[in-house]
C-alpha cells in the first residue's frame, strides 16, 4: 500500500441555511498539485475550504489526509497552513514581531532568518512598522510570510491575490510554484482562471455552481 501523502475528499456535501451549496463532491490532491476551486460569489468556495481545514464538518462525506480522516489525524494540523480573508496579525506588533510571535508559537518552525522572509515578500522595509499601520496589501504579504516559517505540506489559500498588486502576485505565484515543485500541495480559491499564469502546469479546476 502506498504511503504517499495525499488529500482526498469523498462524497462531500454542505448545507448552509436552507440551501445545499454542493453535494457528492469528490477530489484528490497529490504532491506537486494545486486544486483551484472556482465559482460564483456564494457558491460555497470558502465553505469548502473550511471543511478542508477541518473547522467545519461536511453534511456528508469526509476528507482524508494520507488515507485517514482529517478529524482523526492529529498530524494534519501540523502539516497544513491556512490563509483566509482575515490576516490574523497582531496590530500592535511590528511586521517582524508578528513573524517572531508565530515562529515561537510553532514548536516545529524552522530557525529561519525572519528578515529573509520579509525580503522574499518584498516588505523588508516594513520590518519595524506596526502591522496596524501597514497597507492592506502589505498586511496580506506579511500573512503570506507566515507560510514560509516551515515547509508545510499543504497550503490552503482563500483568494490569495485579493488586494495584492502585480509585483506581489508574481511573488506569491512564484512561491506557490516552488512549493509545488518541492512536492507539496495547494488548495486555493481564486475568481480567475490560472491557465495563463505560472501555475498553469500544476493546477486542476474544481468548479462550484
Ligand atoms: N454561517 C452561515 N450560516 C448560513 N449561511 C451561510 C453562513 N456562512 C455562509 N453562508 C452562506 O453560504 C453561501 C456560501 O458562502 P461562501 O462564503 O462559502 O461562498 P463563496 O463561494 O466563498 O463566496 P464569495 O466568492 O463571495 O467569497 C452564501 O450564500 C452564504 O450566505
UniProtKB/TrEMBL annotation:
<feature type="domain" description="ABC transporter">
    <location>
        <begin position="7"/>
        <end position="207"/>
    </location>
</feature>
<dbReference type="InterPro" id="IPR005895">
    <property type="entry name" value="ABC_transptr_haem_export_CcmA"/>
</dbReference>
<dbReference type="GO" id="GO:0017004">
    <property type="term" value="P:cytochrome complex assembly"/>
</dbReference>
<keyword id="KW-0813">Transport</keyword>
<dbReference type="Pfam" id="PF00005">
    <property type="entry name" value="ABC_tran"/>
</dbReference>
<dbReference type="GO" id="GO:0016887">
    <property type="term" value="F:ATP hydrolysis activity"/>
</dbReference>
<keyword id="KW-0067">ATP-binding</keyword>
<dbReference type="GO" id="GO:0022857">
    <property type="term" value="F:transmembrane transporter activity"/>
</dbReference>
<dbReference type="InterPro" id="IPR027417">
    <property type="entry name" value="P-loop_NTPase"/>
</dbReference>
<dbReference type="InterPro" id="IPR017871">
    <property type="entry name" value="ABC_transporter-like_CS"/>
</dbReference>
<keyword id="KW-0472">Membrane</keyword>
<keyword id="KW-0547">Nucleotide-binding</keyword>
<dbReference type="InterPro" id="IPR003439">
    <property type="entry name" value="ABC_transporter-like_ATP-bd"/>
</dbReference>
<dbReference type="GO" id="GO:0005524">
    <property type="term" value="F:ATP binding"/>
</dbReference>
<dbReference type="InterPro" id="IPR003593">
    <property type="entry name" value="AAA+_ATPase"/>
</dbReference>
<keyword id="KW-1278">Translocase</keyword>
<keyword id="KW-0201">Cytochrome c-type biogenesis</keyword>
<protein>
    <submittedName>
        <fullName>Cytochrome c biogenesis ATP-binding export protein CcmA</fullName>
    </submittedName>
</protein>
Amino acid at each position: 500500500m502506498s504511503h504517499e501523502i495525499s488529500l482526498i475528499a469523498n462524497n462531500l456535501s454542505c448545507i448552509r441555511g436552507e440551501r445545499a451549496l454542493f453535494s457528492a463532491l469528490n477530489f484528490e490532491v497529490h504532491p506537486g498539485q494545486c486544486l483551484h476551486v472556482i465559482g460564483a460569489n456564494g457558491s460555497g468556495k470558502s465553505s469548502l475550504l473550511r471543511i478542508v481545514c477541518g473547522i467545519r464538518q461536511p453534511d456528508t462525506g469526509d476528507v482524508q489526509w494520507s488515507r485517514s480522516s482529517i478529524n482523526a489525524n492529529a498530524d494534519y494540523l501540523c502539516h497544513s497552513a491556512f490563509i483566509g480573508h482575515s490576516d490574523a496579525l497582531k496590530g500592535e506588533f511590528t511586521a517582524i514581531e508578528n513573524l517572531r510571535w508565530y515562529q515561537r508559537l510553532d514548536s516545529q518552525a524552522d530557525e529561519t532568518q525572519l528578515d529573509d522572509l520579509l525580503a522574499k515578500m518584498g516588505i523588508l522595509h516594513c520590518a519595524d512598522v506596526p502591522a496596524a499601520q501597514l497597507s492592506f496589501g502589505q498586511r496580506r504579504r506579511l500573512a503570506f510570510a507566515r507560510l514560509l516559517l516551515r515547509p508545510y505540506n499543504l497550503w490552503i489559500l482563500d483568494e490569495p491575490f485579493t488586494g495584492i498588486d502585480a509585483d506581489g502576485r508574481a511573488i506569491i505565484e512564484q512561491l506557490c510554484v516552488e512549493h509545488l515543485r518541492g512536492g507539496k500541495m495547494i488548495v486555493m480559491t481564486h475568481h480567475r482562471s490560472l491557465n495563463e499564469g505560472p501555475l498553469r502546469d500544476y493546477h486542476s479546476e474544481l468548479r462550484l455552481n
